[in-house]
What we know:
Number of domains: 1
Order of helices and strands: HHHHHHH
Structural class: mainly alpha
Radius of gyration: 16 Å
Number of strands: 0
Largest sheet: none
Number of helices: 7
Distance between the termini: 40 Å
Amino acid sequence: MEFIVxxxxxxxxxxxxGYLPKWLLxxxxxxxxxxxxxxxxxSLTKRVYAGKPEQVTPLSARLFATxxxxxxxxxxxxxxxxQHRFMYDLGIWTYVIALTHYTGELFVFRGCKFNGPxxxxxxxxVTSLIWLTQVKDQYVKxx
Length: 143
C-alpha cells in the first residue's frame, strides 16, 4: 500500500502550481465516472437529455462514454503540461467542444432541458473556459 501512495505522491508532485491543474484533474475524474456509468447504464444520461430521452440508447450512451473518456484523458495530460501551449489549447478545446455540444442539444436539437443534470456539465464547461482563458499567460511558457 505504501508503494502505491508513494507512486501517487511522485506523480502529483509534478503537477504545476495552482488550482487550475487540480480542477482539470477533478473534471477528468468526473468524466471518468461518467464514462463508467455510461458503459453500464443509460439511465443518468437520459436525465441529461431529458428533452428527448427516447433517443438515448445503449449505443449512444457507449459512444458518449468513449467521447467523455477521450476528453478526460486529454484534460489529464493538459493538467500536467499546462506550460506547453499545444496542451493548454487542447484542454481549452475539450471544453469548447463540450459547450458546443450541450448548447446545440439545448437550443437546436432540443435533446436537453434546462434542468440540474444538464446544468452541471454546462456550468463546468463555461467555468473552465472562462478560467482557462483568463490565466493562460500564467501557465503557458513554451510555444
